[in-house]
Design brief:
This protein has one domain: Spore Coat Polysaccharide Biosynthesis Protein SpsA, Chain A, CATH 3.90.550. Helix content is 37%, strand content 25%. Strands 5-4-1-6-11-8-12-10-9 form a nine-stranded mixed β-sheet. Strands 2-3 form a two-stranded antiparallel ribbon. The chain is globular and about 60 Å long. Bound molecules: 1-O-phosphono-alpha-D-glucopyranose. It catalyses: alpha-D-glucose 1-phosphate + UTP + H(+) = UDP-alpha-D-glucose + diphosphate.
Length: 291
């Protein structure tokens, strides 16, 4: 299944990060030296995605501006001979074709994905949630495409979570096919630990087929009164196989304060030009605090 289009829902309000997100989109918060959304777009590009649709909402203009040309800035940099900076900002606006559509009401992830129907136009497609930065040896979406090539159907990325956290995720029930791949037999959105069919949680990566749009349209609002993508996938199970891919890598939930901090520290420690100083700063700080 060659997936060339991706949908990135970015309409969410980011309430878990207030007041940080009062006047700026959470997707634009810095992770080391890039806004979080850029990691997700780069993962899509690495997986062969050629065009992206961002499903936006109010207060998200900064994302559009970021992926657009900034003529004044480029002119300024060029006239001052700052060519490295010029190429860096041009690279961002040239990296991929980005389209935008607005989700007019916050009706849930399923409804956000439904806004992509005209853009997708009958092709299989990927959904990447911008809250989830996944750092691994191979981009998560590439690992999922490998599963999709071997096992035709839809694919969701999963990871094990502690039992007590199941109510924060979509949880799957599945039959192991090979290590790291399950055929999904059920999906539940944010079940209480006692009701969770497993501790395998869906993280924000999906490979979907266009039949999902009819399923979403027929899906009633579920958990938290929102139209849930998880519920639409559950409804499709009798007609379309869904596989779960336990990806290799680390997922950072940047919609959460601790996740955002962890992403910054862990990804900075992987950068040769920052790692030495940061390591020293962290150990000095720990010594001072615990002395
Ligand atoms: C969404 C999905 C959920 C998934 C999660 C992963 O929930 O509805 O199934 O497990 O993303 O990040 P949200 O975190 O947007 O409430």
């Amino acid at each position: 299944m060659g997936v060339r289009k991706a949908v990135i829902p970015v309409a969410g309000m980011g309430t878990r990060l207030l007041p940080l997100t009062k006047s700026q989109p959470k997707e634009m918060l810095p992770v080391v030296d890039k806004p979080a959304i850029q990691y997700v777009v780069e993962e899509a590009i690495d997986a062969g995605i050629q065009s992206v649709l961002m499903v936006t909402g109010r207060g998200k203009r900064a994302i559009e501006d970021y992926f657009d040309h900034s003529i004044e800035l480029e002119h300024e940099l060029e006239s001052h001979g700052k060519l490295d900076d010029l190429h860096a900002v041009q690279r961002i606006s040239n990296m991929i074709q980005v389209y935008y559509v607005r989700q007019k009401l916050p009706r849930g992830l399923g409804d956000a994905v439904l806004q992509a129907r005209a853009f997708i136009d009958g092709d299989p497609f990927a959904v990447l949630l911008a809250d989830d930065i996944i750092d691994g040896p191979t981009p998560c979406l590439v690992q999922m495409q490998q599963v999709a090539r071997r096992y035709p159907g839809m694919v969701v990325a999963v990871m094990e979570v502690p039992r007590e956290q199941t109510s924060s995720y979509g949880i799957i029930e599945g039959t192991a096919v090979v290590p790291g791949v399950w055929e999904v037999t059920g999906l539940v959105e944010k079940p209480e630990p006692a009701d969770a069919p497993s501790n395998l949680a869906i993280v924000g990566r999906y490979i979907l087929t266009p039949g999902i749009f009819d399923a979403i349209e027929q899906t009633e609002p579920g958990k938290n009164g929102e139209v849930q993508l998880t519920d639409a996938l559950q409804a499709m199970l009798p007609f379309k196989k869904v596989y779960a891919c336990e990806f290799k890598g680390t997922r950072y939930d940047i919609g959460d304060q601790m996740g955002l901090l962890k992403a910054n520290v862990a990804l900075a420690l992987k950068r040769p030009e920052l790692a030495g100083d940061l390591r020293q700063f962290l150990s000095e700080t720990l010594e001072t605090i615990f002395d």
